[in-house]
Amino acid sequence: MLDLDFVRSQFPAFSSPVLSGHAFFENAGGSYPCRQVVDRLHRFYTDRKVQPYGPYPGAQAGGAEMDEARARLAAMMGVAPEAVSFGPSTSANTYVLAQAVRGWLKGAGGALVVTDQDHEANAGVWRRLADEGIEVREWQVDRATGSLDPAALARLLADGKVRLLCFPHCSNVIAEINDVAAICAMARAAGARTVVDGVSYAPHGFPDFAALGADCYLFSAYKTYGPHQGIMVLREDFGFELPGQGHYFNHATLSKRHTPAGPDHAQIAACAGMADYVDALAAHHGISGDALVRSRGVHDLMRAQEVAVIQPLLEYLAARNDLRLLGPRDSARRAPTVAVDLGRAAEPVSEALGREGIACWAGDFYAVRPLQALGIDLGKGVLRMSATHYTSADEVARLVAALERVL
Q1: Which residue of 77, 285, 314, 375 has the fewest C-beta atoms within 10 A of its own C-beta?
Q2: How far apart are CA 158 and CA 87, in angstroms?
Q3: Which sign does the torsion angle of CA 129, 135, 139, 144 carry?
Q4: For residue 94, how far is the Cα from the chain centroid?
Q5: Rounded CA gap, 251 and 245, in Å?
Q6: Which fold has domain 4-32+293-406?
Q7: d(C-alpha 354, C-alpha 382), whole Å
Q8: What is the radius of gyration, based on Cα positions, of the chain?
Q9: Using N-to-C axis directions, what is the helix angle for 272-284 and 35-43, rounded to 10°?
Q10: In this structure, is the dihedral angle defined by the CA atoms of residues 114, 201, 95 and 79, taken in order, positive or negative?
Q11: Over the stretch 89-118, which tens digit does the pLDDT of each residue have?
């Protein structure tokens, strides 16, 4: 079992006089950074904030730490270092990737499929390709449950014209975990590439890229205990098949081919702290093996903790007849991101919970399309309460008690 005391000791926020007074349930918007990331970021700005890779100690140390971050994160996900690209955010990385796909599909023809379960970052950029005459098909959610039906996807793929499928590992409001490996296998059999938005899943365990079978997987470091960076894992053959979006003289290097912006040296270097944290958890819990094996073991520890801790909240909400719980009621089938339609404005409720010592928020969370598909009034929004592996059972009990008073 996960040693929660050890876990929480790795996060400075839990001893912060500003943050520690509230139970934190806004992890889907951005997790607390672990101590290892904070320390590395401070060290970089103190000792390495110069042009990296230059012929003097600070520059060499900075470049080495950036290389370390790429290599260690790649090893955790079972890919070569060059498959990992950094960008200012996942939204920016997805936008750049869409520009590459624009040229690729215009030249080769074919359609692409998007869902209405996505956050807008992995929906809007793909839908705008229709302006170029590219056919965009929609894999629609079930209007009652918010689930994506593989049978409906099979019908969209049946004519063999689809070249790309873009879908989420899980939605940031519905939270049901999609079977990425099975979906990617379906797409591959139909001749389509796959782009998976992992932003809402990766905080609950880093992806095993090969096992998932995707051609591209995107997630955010600032939601996985790290700095504000977007991380893109790109299969080599797909990356080189797409037109390069970076400087032309960098097109031979996969990690630079689709990153037109200059990298944030300090934040890339600090991403190595995410690997430090995973390794610290693995060592403390007796998980040994290579980096991928350790990451898998930590993933399973995280998920087991989350499944156990969030189930009482789901049961409490499901038992009420004055609200609508989005997504599955079984915590094993979902991420611990819990959104509810209150049938009234959700923002005042989040404000009231704040006064009760609960940190959460309300709104549409850029998930406008899935909320509309479920018939939810965007003006009222949803209340969202999101946990992660460092959330305690006591905090969930505090949340349930506060909800009982406020609702």
Answers
A1: 375
A2: 35
A3: positive
A4: 12
A5: 8
A6: Aspartate Aminotransferase, domain 1 (3.90.1150)
A7: 16
A8: 21
A9: 140
A10: negative
A11: 999 999 999 999 999 998 777 999 999 999
What type of residue sits at position 207?
P
In our burial notation (b when 16+ CB lie closer than 10 A, e otherwise), range 54-81 reads: eeeebeebbbebbbbbbbbbbbbbbbeb
Q: How many CB atoms lie within 10 A of CB 153?
A: 21
Quote the longest CA-to-CA distance of the chain: 67
CATH 3.40.640.10 fits 43-275, yes or no: yes
Rounded to an integer, what distance in angstroms lies between the CA atom of residue 227 and that of residue 231? 11
- Note the helical H segments in 87-203: 90-108, 124-127, 150-157, 180-189
Q: Which residues, listed in sequence order, are joined to residue 148 by a DSSP beta bridge?
A: 141
Where do the structural domains in the chain lie, given as residue ranges? 4-32+293-406, 43-275
Query: For residues 203 and 26, what is the distance between their CA atoms, to the nearest angstrom?
Result: 12
Helix then strand then coil, in percent of the chain rounded to 5, is: 50, 15, 35
What mean pLDDT do residues 162-177 have?
98
Q: What 3-state class would DSSP assign to 192?
A: coil
* Bridge partners of residue 341, in order along the sequence: 324
